[in-house]
């Protein structure tokens, strides 16, 4: 059985750190949406309204994700996603693909990293080298959007679980962060 690890959380929640600490790249296929898109479209960063969003990205992301899923299934390497699904709509697409996959249905483990809004502000301020009160309008919008997107994914997951429409097995792991690390808080 193939395993997919979806690492989900708001911007600055530590998704990449969690992956580096717990799911090393030599044992997993890594699907990092942000790195893929930034690498492919670095030239576009000056012509987009928002640095982290491209309106043409979804078809590219879905195509790469599907191929990574097929490779994972064929060769037996677990798949790790960082930044996918990012919102409720992408969760619906991932669900549809998981239900329609020709190969054996994978076990999907959702690693949910939640941080408070204040912690998120502090982390993004630290990353950009400014004080919290000096965060740019873009970063403030990014915080608000990432919190809304994360809640949308969680709501969609709840809906899918309650509907009984999942043909694949799932596990939900919620983490809290203590002392610079991630501690499993609860699992379902």
- The whole-number mean of residue pLDDT values reads 88
Tell me the number of helical segments per DSSP (H or I, 4 or more residues long).
6
- Side-by-side strand order of the widest sheet: 2-3-1-4-5-6
Helicity, as a percent range = 40-55%
Principal-axes geometry comes out as globular
Order of helices and strands: EHEHHEHEHHEE
Number of strands: 6
- How far the N terminus sits from the C terminus, by CA atoms, comes to 19 Å
For the CA atoms, what is the radius of gyration? 17 Å
What can you see in these coordinates?
- The protein has 188 residues and is α/β, with parallel strands linked by helices.
- Helix content is 46%, strand content 21%.
- The chain has helices spanning 15-22, 33-40, 57-75, 88-100, 117-128, 137-163, and strands at residues 3-9, 29-32, 79-82, 107-113, 169-178, 181-187.
- A 6-stranded mixed β-sheet has the order 2-3-1-4-5-6, with helices on both faces.
- Helix 4 packs parallel to helix 6.
- It is globular.
- It starts with a strand and ends with a strand.
- 27% of the residues are buried.
- The model has no long low-confidence stretch (mean pLDDT 88).
């Amino acid at each position: 059985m193939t395993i997919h690890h979806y690492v989900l959380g708001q911007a600055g929640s530590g998704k990449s750190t969690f992956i580096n600490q717990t799911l090393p790249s030599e044992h997993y296929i890594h699907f990092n949406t942000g790195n893929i898109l930034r690498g492919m479209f670095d030239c576009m960063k000056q012509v987009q309204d928002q640095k982290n969003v491209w309106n043409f990205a979804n078809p590219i992301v879905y195509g790469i994700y599907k191929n990574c899923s097929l490779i994972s299934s064929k060769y037996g390497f677990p798949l790790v996603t960082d930044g996918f699904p990012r919102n409720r709509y992408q969760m619906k697409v991932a669900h549809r693909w998981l239900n329609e996959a020709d190969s054996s249905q994978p076990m999907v483990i959702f690693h949910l990293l939640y941080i408070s809004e204040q912690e998120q502000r502090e982390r993004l301020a630290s990353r950009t080298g400014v004080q919290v009160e000096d965060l740019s309008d873009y970063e403030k919008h990014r915080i608000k959007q990432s919190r809304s997107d994360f809640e949308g994914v969680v709501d969609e997951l709840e809906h899918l679980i309650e509907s009984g429409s999942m043909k694949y097995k799932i596990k939900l792991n919620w983490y809290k962060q203590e002392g610079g690390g991630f501690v499993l808080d609860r699992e379902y």
